[in-house]
Automatic annotation (TrEMBL):
Pfam families noted in UniProt: S1-P1_nuclease (PF02265)
CDD domains membership: S1-P1_nuclease (cd11010)
GO biological process, one term: DNA catabolic process
Domain of life: Bacteria
SUPFAM superfamilies: Phospholipase C/P1 nuclease
Name of protein: S1/P1 Nuclease
UniProt entry keywords in alphabetical sequence: Disulfide bond, Endonuclease, Glycoprotein, Hydrolase, Metal-binding, Nuclease
The keyword NADP appears for this protein: no
Length: 283
């Protein structure tokens, strides 16, 4: 595993009590496995030293697992990397972010993604630093596709909104983190087999986007999810929302692959075809 983060990498962020876990471990692993299925061979070679012997699906949960680390960065500062709070689409101003591999503070998930991309694209950063930001990037791309990670600050992205799911008390954020994904009773590999696609039309549509678009997608979905009615969710909620869950997981995996292919394989036509590894090995 990657060494404990050094003070060089610690960013001074405001303390928050926000619960920032997103998707269950299975949810993140689903995204990681889908991404792995769509990497080009060149990208797979390039990320090998960044994986440090792990599989991509394993790496995606690292940023949450490290929160057990007693260092202040992991206990407090890293939390803001996982979410963004905006009250309206007009409030989100991507142009205000000035992020490079050695400049720019990580204040939210969007700046965290930009920072990770900048570090990985730069030839002037160490392997250790790239390993850190690679692991974070695989996680943050998953997080931003969980709609409540672009939720409202006043309710901590739905953490304060109590609901029941088949009679069990939970909250809106946790329901979307874990409850819906786990209700399918599938392993992450089974889930991937059910939802992954090789359809170039779907892949191209999902890739015709940028991280700023993913933020707004989640924001708009979250705004609809706040209409909880009586907050007692059963089969009707699964029927209504499971297609959204599956689409966000699939989008997260394909977009993570597209992003990694763009960073590490300059010959990859990521806006046209990200079938990558599967296609190349089926020829």
């Amino acid at each position: 595993m990657i060494k404990q983060i050094s003070s060089l990498f610690i960013v001074a962020l405001t303390l928050t009590t926000f619960n920032v876990t997103a998707w269950s471990q299975n949810g993140h692993r689903i995204i990681g496995k889908i991404a792995e299925n769509h990497l080009t061979i060149e990208t797979r070679r390039a990320i090998y030293p960044l994986l440090q012997g792990d599989k991509l699906a394993e790496v995606t949960t690292w940023a949450d697992e490290m929160r057990s680390n007693p260092a202040d960065f992991w206990k407090y500062d890293s939390r803001k990397w996982h979410y963004i709070n905006i009250s309206s689409a007009d409030e989100f101003k991507p142009a205000k972010y000035r992020i490079t591999h050695n400049k720019g503070e990580v204040t939210d998930i969007y700046s965290g993604i930009l920072k990770s991309i900048a570090v990985l694209e730069s030839p002037n950063t160490s392997l250790e630093k790239k390993q850190f930001y690679f692991r974070f990037l695989t996680h943050l791309v998953g997080d931003i596709h969980q709609p409540m990670h672009a939720g409202r600050s006043e309710d901590w992205g739905g953490n304060k909104i109590k609901v029941t799911f088949f009679g069990k008390e939970t909250n809106l954020h946790s329901l979307w983190d874990k409850g819906l994904v786990e209700s399918e009773n599938l392993s992450y590999t089974e889930f991937v087999e059910f939802i992954d696609t090789k359809d170039p039309r779907i892949i191209s549509r999902y890739l015709a986007s940028e991280p700023k678009d993913w933020v707004l997608e989640s924001f708009h979905i979250a705004e609809e999810l706040y209409d909880i009615g009586n907050g007692e969710f059963k089969y009707h909620y699964v029927y209504e929302q499971m297609p959204v869950v599956k689409e966000r997981l699939l989008q997260g995996g394909i977009r993570l692959a597209g992003l990694l292919n763009k960073i590490f394989d300059k010959s990859a036509e990521v806006q046209v075809n990200a079938i990558g590894y599967l296609e190349q090995n089926n020829k």
